[in-house]
Amino acid sequence: MTAAQIILGFSGLWRLVVRLLSPLSAAPLVALVGFGLYQHGFHAVAKCIEIGLPQLILLIILSQYIPHAMQSRKHVVELFALIISVGIVWLFALILTLGGAYRHAPRRTQLHCRTDRSGLIGASPWIRIPYPFQWGTPTFDAGEAFAMMVASFVALVESTGGFIAVSRLASATQVPPSVLSRGVGWQGIGVLLDGIFGTLNGSVH
Fold it and tell me: Among residues 27, 97, 125, 147, which one has the fewest Cβ atoms lying within 10 Å of its Cβ?
């Protein structure tokens, strides 16, 4: 995955593809990928519907409706809609937990809904220095590598659209294809470092 991004980005090949990309072609591709992840997302939401459903509703309101209604600071709400909604819903879950809403609930419900059952905050060290290959040595599987290369192409299209959207939100000039191609190459290096240090996530934007 990272090799494809680095090669396409720094070789300049991606700028040839960027010239053919448009919102009309990129949006359906990214949307189809997102629709394919619904089966994982809604399954997690169903584990605590009274927390997950308000989170989805609030995220849609903050990202799609509030920016259009505001005259100022609308870009702030649009950019940080996810962080704002997570913070609000977490406080809502904290109120339910302290109020005893889950006191007699099943253990599985308490695990997914209460804010004091996961143990993530208490178990996390105050200071932790990451180091390469902390989760073990890398492995290679041809089937998984091919699947990730397909996902890498989708990430390239999505990230290119993200770069263009960020430049427009920042009121910058139009980004030339050569700069977008180099941006994709540096993203590949970022994802490579993510894998080496075992961050369990990629550098998308």
Answer: 125
CA distance 175 to 167: 7
Within 10 angstroms of residue 164's Cβ, the number of other Cβ atoms is 17
**Tokens 């995955």 label which residue?**
1
pLDDT digits (tens, 9 = 90+) for 57-66: 999 998 888 8
Give ∠ CA 24-30-33 in degrees, rounded to 5.
Answer: 140
Helices (H), the chain: 2-10, 13-18, 23-36, 38-45, 49-60, 66-69, 74-79, 81-98, 107-113, 120-123, 142-169, 177-197
Do residues 62 and 81 touch, judged by C-beta distance below 8 A?
yes
**Using alpha carbons only, what angle is made at residue 123 by residues 119 and 127, rounded to the nearest 5 degrees?**
145
Lookup: tokens for 85: 């909604």
User: Tokens 């397909």, residue?
Assistant: 150
Tokens of 175: 């980004």
Residue 143 has pLDDT above 90, yes or no: no
Q: What is the pLDDT of residues 145-193, one digit of tens each?
A: 777 777 777 778 778 877 877 777 677 777 888 888 888 888 888 888 8
pTM: 0.60
